[in-house]
Every structure is written in C-alpha cells, then in structure tokens.
UniProtKB/TrEMBL annotation, chain B:
CDD domains the record matches: TM_PBP2 (cd06261)
Membrane disposition: Multi-pass membrane protein
Annotated transmembrane regions: 21-46, 71-100, 120-140, 146-164, 194-215, 259-284
Domain of life: Bacteria
Subcellular compartments: Cell membrane
Domain ABC transmembrane type-1: 75-280
The organism of origin for this protein: Fictibacillus norfolkensis
InterPro entries: MetI-like, MetI-like_sf, Phosphate_PstA
Keyword terms: Cell membrane, Membrane, Transmembrane, Transmembrane helix, Transport
Main localization (coarse): membrane
Name used for this protein in its record: Phosphate transport system permease protein PstA
Family: Belongs to the binding-protein-dependent transport system permease family. CysTW subfamily.
Organism lineage: Bacteria, Bacillati, Bacillota, Bacilli, Bacillales
Amino acid sequence: MSRDKTNQKSIRSMIQENKSSRSQSAVMEKVVPKIFLICAIISIFTTIGIVFTLLTETFTFFNRISIVEFFTNTRWFPFTSDENADFGIIALIMGTLTVTAIAMVVAIPIGLAAAIYLSEYASAKTRKIIKPILEVLAGIPTIVYGFFALTFVTPLLDKIIPGGISIFNALSPGIVVGIMIIPMIASLSEDAMNAVPNSMREGALALGATRFEVAMKVVLPAALSGVIASFVLGISRAIGETMIVTIAGGSRPTADINVTESIQTMTAYIVQVSQGDTGYGTTIYYSIYAVGMTLFVFTLIMNLLAQFISRKFREEY
Amino acid sequence: MPLINKESVKKRMGTRLAANGFAKFLFILATCFSLLVLGVLIYRILSEGLPYLSLDFITNFASRMPERAGIWAALLGTIWVMAVTAPVSFILGVGTAIYLEEYAKKNAFTKFVQINISNLAGVPSIVFGLLGLTIFVRLLGLGSSVLAGGLTMSLLILPVIVVASQEAIRTVPREIREASFGMGATKWQTIRRIVFPAALPGILTGTILALSRAVGETAPLLVLGALAYVAFVPENIFSQFTVLPIQLYNWTSRPQEDFHMLAASGIIILLIILLIMNSIAVLIRNKFHKRF
C-alpha cells in the first residue's frame, strides 16, 4: 500500500516535471532563434560599422582637405607643417597598383600553370602531396613573407639586377606578394577546372587531342569564369596586403614609379601613421580613414566584380 | 577521297606532341616553384633563427640588447588576445551559421546576410583595424587593450568561421534530423543534441584554422595601437599588450642584423604554434569526422 503511494507520487511528480520542462522547452523554442538571429545581425553591424566609421572620419578629413585635391594632387607629403602638407592619394594609389601589378605578373602565370598541372596532368597521388603543401604556403603569416622579402629577396635582386636596388623597393614586395597569392589562384582555378565534366575531356581526347590541347581549348575556356574570378580575387588580396609592403616597400610615396626605388602603398601609410605619435584629431589622423576608405572601395569593387564574373559567365554543364 | 588527310596529320603530330611535353614541363616547373620557395623560406628562417633560439629567448622580455631579448610578453599577449577572440568568434560564428542553415527563411534578408558575410571575408584586415580603432578603442573607451584587440580579431575571422560552420552543418544529412523530429524532439532539441554534435568536428576544424590565421595577423592590431615594446605581461583584459607578429615586425624593421636573427627565431616559434594548431585541426577532421 505504502509502496503504491510513493509510486503514485512519483508519477505525478514526473508528469509535473514533464510539464514544466515542456513549457521550458517551449520558451527555448522561441528564444533560441532570436539569439541566433542576433548573432547573424552582428555580422551586418560589422559592415555597417566599417562603412559608417570610414565615412564619418573621411568626411571630417574632406572638410579640411578638398576632395578634388585629394584625388588630383600627385604628391603625398603629410608630415610637414600644415600649410605645406600635400594629400594627393594618387601617389599612394600608384604605389599600391605597382606592387599589385608585379604580384599579378608573378602569381597569374605560375598559379594558373600549377592549377592546370594539378587538374589535368597530375595523378591523384601527386595531387594529394602537392595540395597540402600549397595550403601550408597559403597559411604562412604575411609578417613572415615580409621578413623573407626584406632579408632574402631584396639582397638577391640586388645581386641580379645590374646597378643594384635600394633596400626598400617595389619589386621585392611585389614578387613576394605574388608568391603569397599563388596558392589562392592555384586552388580557386583548380576548383573551377575540376568542375568541368570529364565527359568533355574524354570527348576531346577521343578526337585525338593531346592533353595540352584539351587543357587549353576545352577545359580552360569552360572554366574561364572561375579562373578569371580567381585572378580578380587575387588582385583584391594584393591591394589589401599590408605587412609585406610595409616591411619591404619603404615609406616614400611617389607617383612616378621606379620599381627599384622605395614606394609607399595605401596600407603601408596607414601602418606608418598608427606607428607614429600622431595625435587624435589631427588632419593626419583623419587621413588614414580617407586612405582606408579608398582601399575599402578598391577591394569591394574587385570582390563584387569577381562575384559578378563567376555568376554571370558561368557555363553550366 | 579520305576524310582525313593522314599526311598532314602525321606532319603536325610531332609538333603537337612536343608542345604537349613542353607545356607539361612548364606546368610542373611552375608547381615546383611554389614548393621551392617554401623550402628556401624555411631553410632561411631556420639558418638565421636557430642560433638565438633557446629557453631564455622564450622566457625573456624584449630588450635593446639582442642577446638578452625574448618573446615572453609577446607570447603571453598572443595567448591573451586569443583567449578573448576564441570564445567570442566561436559563439558568434556558430550562432550565425545555425541561424542561416536551420532557422532562416529563404528571403531577401537571408540572402543579404549571406552576401554580406562573403563580402566581409574580402575586406582587407587593416580596415578591420580602423574599425576597431574607432569603435572599440575610442567610442567604447577600451583603449589599446587586450579586449579591444580580441574583439577586433573576432570580427576579422568571423566570416571564415561562419562559412566553415555552415558547410559542416550542411553535411549533416536530413534523415537523422527527421528521425529526431519523428521521435518527438523539438527543433532546438534536434539542433542541440543531433545536428550540433554531428557538425562539431567540422566546426572545430574551421574555427582552429581561423584562429591560426588570427595568430599570424599583424596589421589590425598595429592600427589599434598595440605596443611594439612591452616589458610586462597583460594582467587582465584591459591591459595593454603586444603580440608575437608585432614583436617580429618591430625586430624586422630595425636595421641591425642581430635583430633580424631574433625575428627569425621568433618566426620559428610562431610557425611552430601555427603548425601545432593546424595539426590539431587536421587531427580533429580525420579522427572525428563522420561520413553519413
């Protein structure tokens, strides 16, 4: 009898517990999605934060330096007295574009060739060895590449190039930025080529084409949108690259480019200012936001262009 | 009359095969170039860095004298920043991924969030530094503290974690979800007990790889105003700090050869840390990854 009672009690309490836990879980069902939604919204706030901070501080900057002068003046000498200071971003843009161009000359042929080799020639076994090594190369911090550019590539170029090269120059960081981007172009291009169906390759091979002809006349045209998108993303990475150009590129902004001489990129300028003792509220302080804004717009256009190319010109099989 | 002129095909065959062989040679050469660069890079760093590498180098503070300089402050600074970045970016990243994969309806807002994340991934890291400088350092008044640095880094690697987590969640098959629903589990119970555990190895792998990127990142923290010369260890999340890459940058940018060798020693430590993190990530991927 007494045992029965306790049993009843426990069943009742079980039902009670079940009820309360059910109402608890009903609350959870409603609250949890909201919490996750907030997480998702934070990523939007990050973008808004970036655009908002860049815009407001850039606006303050343009109140002091006219926007026309900013985009037409070719001299960038901010660290003199206020009346003599020049804020012509063309000098910094030229530095950035020079490094980017050199990087692309290195990265596009080598990256694409590696991608063709991996997707069209290499056996599965070779690919299994080479791909992780490329991943390692992609994972090396840029500060290490910067060190490599300054202490190895620059002295090497100094020996090779007749007439020598200055310690800080555009060529060495350009080459090293290119090396840094090779894995990215190689792996993105290879993905695009792997997406081309095997039946197309086999069809061409059956008609008597060599592997090279298959790669060049069948696979590459079919994968072109993805390949070009990888180039554009590579350009975007090169434009935004900071440490390599800061360490090995120097800090002499100039619009007439000589690749063996010191230059300054947009990113390197931002680092230079934040390393110095520039006070909050000075024109120089605001100038890093104007430069940052220009940099942001450059990379954003490149990223959108890459998305557009891979979406618009994709061949579906 | 034959459809194929065998003579002309035969004549061209030699050049075509030669072109194929030559091109293959060039492609292999290009691939080997990357491997060669990696080899030279590692050789250079080991040959320059090993002489200064010792236990004292790890436990000493930075110093003006190369033979007494060490990376203790930088090493602990990196650990402190990661201690902030890891939980913040993990919670935000996985939360966003679960929302996008499990809860979000297919509408304009979801698409916008998705496009926004892929665009954030392409923003240069130095721009995140400007964001952190304005919002965390100045607006919220955190100063150039561990907290400000950690939060900035969290936002920087957030897109990587979101994308990796989304992919991991997507590999969980619909059947086991439906089985869970069929047994009466609610949506949140299914996510918490079925989907999340199944996706966890993939999520962890992605998170560790993202964190290893943050460990090597220099530019945003330089812009935030992280110190370059530090002779103390952070005491709490509001302390000023330096991190390993910034210490390396500081040594690299000095003209003396001795400091370059110090930088190389520091790079060895940094690469060892990254190697360990990546190995753990690969280990998790291989060991715990379930195939459905």
